[in-house]
Amino acid sequence: MKLTQELKMALSSVKSNKMRSFLTMLGIIIGVMAVTLLVSLVQGATNTITEQLSGLGGSNLSCMVKKQTPRITLQEVQALEEKPEIGLVSVYHGGSGIAKAAGNQEDVTIYAINQNYQLLNQIKMEEGRCLTEIESEYRLSNCLIGAGVAQNLFGTKRVLGEKIRINGKDFTIVGILKEEGNTTMNTKDLSVFLPFETGQRLLGVNGVANFEASASEERLVEQAERTLNDFLRAKVGEDNFEVFNMGSILDMVTTVYNVLGYLLGGIGGISLLVGGVGIMNIMLVSVTERTREIGIRKAIGAQKSDIIIQFLIESVVLSLLGGLIGLLLSAGILGIVNLFAVEYHFGVTFGVAMLAVFFSVGVGVIFGIYPANKAAKLKPIDALRFE
Fold first, then answer.
1. What is the mean pLDDT of the chain?
2. 3-state SS string over the chain?
């Protein structure tokens, strides 16, 4: 018997018992939904977190000094750029303050930065320009502001050249940052950036407590990290600093999310097994109900392989239809989730979809073999005499 005929018979059997077929597929539908949703949610979260961490500088080295004595000077930190394994070095210092303009005020985060900070942290401008080293050297009263500061104080983001008072001192706005949104990690929308030495004076700090460095080449990241450790150890002692490798943190986060994805996928896979048991149960019932049909087919020349293929195809059709319905429902649910969790990008990827289809077919084959084999082993005379 041709495969197309076997497929038509399987579809006819499914249609003749619509409710039973749906209840049989329900286990597969739930199982595929569980696997697809869990894996897709983990993948979406992983991609979002990875993008955000990469935006912080995936190959950068971040240094934090705990002890301020003896002080590390700006010139000493900048001298690190002379090392062949070190690319750019940026310095920064953060603090809080109050910004006032146009009769309004806003609590802001103040960053004292140098020009390299803007390069290493990929600060994107909506309008205007970045700060320069000359502005830091001459302690000019210029600043960059986040889009949120501009909107809250002036009611518009078109504020280039306007004056803003920060902690009692007037500054001229020379640049406005692109809006990031309040769901972004380390958002800069409510931040003000000042030339490093100008900001130091405003915040009342001396020396360098925080700085970042990039490796001159990707293969030299570990060597650059050793250089920074040696420099800080010589300056402030063994236990008075920390050096963070952003690339290592990124790898660690990715590994954790991958393990979580495998774990949750395995939990969802249990639902598929339960659905498979349901298919086996219904197929055994179907074999019993159609014993006389099997006997007639064998009596007119059907081979054992024909009977096996017939019931296997029926099992796979039930499982595959359940898998496709589960896949469509998962895509719909993830679409709804995206409406509320706009910072993430959840969706059913091609790989996840193929995995769901593969598992659906696999469950149909594995749990359909026993009923199909049982049907094929029936003797024609016994099957025809079955009541």
1. 81
2. CCHHHHHHHHHHHHHHCHHHHHHHHHHHHHHHHHHHHHHHHHHHHHHHHHHHHHHCCCCEEEEEECCCCCCCCHHHHHHHHHCCCEEEEEEEEEEEEEEEECCEEEEEEEEEECHHHHHHCCCCEEEECCCCHHHHHCCCCEEEECHHHHHHHHCCCCCCCCEEEECCEEEEEEEEECCCCCCCCCCCCCEEEEEHHHHHHHHCCCCCCEEEEEECCHHHHHHHHHHHHHHHHHHHCCCCEEEEEHHHHHHHHHHHHHHHHHHHHHHHHHHHHHHHHHHHHHHHHHHHHCHHHHHHHHHCCCCHHHHHHHHHHHHHHHHHHHHHHHHHHHHHHHHHHHHHCCCCCCCCCHHHHHHHHHHHHHHHHHHHHHHHHHHHCCCHHHHHCCC
